[in-house]
Amino acid sequence: MINNTLIQELIHEIVNEEEGMPVVECLMRGSITDEEISEKTHLKLNTVRRILYKLYDAGIASYKRSKDPETQWYTYTWKFESRKVEEIIKKRNQEIMENLRELLAFEENNMFFACKNGHYRCTFDKAVENDFKCPECHGKLEHMDNSETIQQIRKELSLYENNGSEILLNFKSYS
């Protein structure tokens, strides 16, 4: 699971520290205390705890607190929440697909004009407002064929739609 690029990106985004991956790898092996993680990763206990709390805030790590009867100190046993990671990735995938669908509809339902110098691209309405002149270089705005853009968006949308089910299948093998 840790080899999955989407998961690595998510963890890096949440933790934003190089030491995050070794901590997550320890968590993925099963329930473990912060002290044990510190020993296994050779990271300072404060660094491990900072990473664990970031993961906890994101919902992908949880803990149980227990009190040592002899020392009366609390011990925190941490656990990786793979289902929450799956939910986060699925939600992001859905958001990206929705954005791509909106962009596709916009591209399909509008006529575009562009500056031949590459400064400006706009819809027909904006081109009319600017008297079909580029606001930057004042060159003529010409009709632009956006069929390649539409094809590219469809292709990307298709990839996300197909990978969505693949993501779920990959997660089932780790849960």
Task: Walk me through this protein's architecture.
The protein is α+β, with helices and mostly antiparallel strands. It has 7 helices and 6 strands; from the N terminus they run H-H-E-H-H-E-E-H-E-E-H-E-H. The protein has helices spanning 5-15, 20-28, 34-41, 45-58, 82-108, 124-129, 147-172; strands at 32-33, 61-67, 74-80, 112-115, 121-123, 141-144. Strands 1-3-2 form a 3-stranded antiparallel sheet. Strands 5-4-6 form a 3-stranded antiparallel sheet. A hairpin with a 6-residue loop joins strand 2 (61-67) and strand 3 (74-80).
Topology:
Layout: H1 5-15, H2 20-28, E1 32-33, H3 34-41, H4 45-58, E2 61-67, E3 74-80, H5 82-108, E4 112-115, E5 121-123, H6 124-129, E6 141-144, H7 147-172
Antiparallel strand pairs: 1-3, 2-3, 4-5, 4-6
Characteristic terms for this protein:
single chain; 175 residues; alpha+beta; three-stranded antiparallel sheet; 7 helices; elongated; disordered C terminus
Task: Indicate the low-confidence ranges by residue numbers.
Answer: 168-175
Please state the overall shape, judged from the principal axes of the Cα atoms: elongated
Which class do the helix and strand fractions yield?
A: alpha+beta
Helical percentage: 55-70%
Which strands sit side by side, in order, in the main sheet?
Answer: 1-3-2
Query: What is the number of beta strands?
Result: 6
Percentage beta strand: 15-25%
Mean pLDDT: 88
Succession of helices and strands: HHEHHEEHEEHEH
How many helical stretches?
Answer: 7
The tally of domains stands at: 2
How far do the termini sit from each other? Answer: 9 Å
Largest β sheet strand count, sense and barrel closure? 3 strands, antiparallel
